[in-house]
Amino acid sequence: MAYMKQVILLHNPKAGDEDHFKSDLMRAIEKEGYRCTYYLIKKDERWKDQIDEADIVVVAGGDGTVRKVVKELFEKGIAKRKATLALLPMGTANNLSKTLLLNKETSFENHVNAWKNGEYQRFDMGTIAYDGNADFFLEGAGYGIFPSLIQTMDKIDLSQLETTDDQLKLALENLYKIIQTAEAHLYTIRADDKTYEDRYLLLEVMNIPSIGPNLTLAPAAQIDDGYLDLVTISEKEREAFALHVKKITKGEATSFDFQTIRAKRFEIRSTNKTIHIDDKCVSTSNGSLTIEVREHILDFLS
Known about the structure:
single chain; alpha+beta; 15-stranded mixed beta sheet; ATP binding; ATP-NAD_kinase_N; kinase; transferase
């Protein structure tokens, strides 16, 4: 008998859709010859004990759900054997799915059908050390405007907004306001063997091209090249960057010449002690970080 690959399906549902989604998707997965086990990721913690038995870990949710799953993989040490993940984009921004060229509007049956003939995309990730702590990021980590945006959006009730497009637009509108008043801090950056120093409104170390509300900061970033892209916005670029974001919000054509430093390792010192790591904010004791790339940690099916 041919070996049937084991799929573990980890679902972070929107209200009211979990039963319909579970039956339809499990049927689609099993139709393609996989064995499938389903878990509601927020309600059933048993998935953490089963994840190491899966050939393919399927994440049905947004970027935050993907991060939660990858965190568990690392804590269990499974990523040493290059865990294979497949994404069914169901979040608001879906920056990771966008990077992997997965269309949110494609039916999940078509996504599942594509797995057999799909390509494995190697995926690097960033590691970050501060105050004796170690963490990782899939999208980006940095200072300035984006920690402020995360803190602002965490205080807003988004349940009254009908669509994810409405939520993204609101985030961009708040980002525009933050850019107007953001404080520029002094940063000293050691990027591999070169040193830079200046004052910036934004400093982001990017692993993928886009972050937050689908804002592309590092268009040339590659997920498997063994490098990270550090992007900066200086005080003199404030007005131009604000206009760029405003045009994106209005759906108008726009471009911005982002200043980028590409390296494998960054040591950063700053007077700014607040950082973000993907979608969470963290306070550091002295504003100092060490960030490195780890090559080909994950495989994504696409």
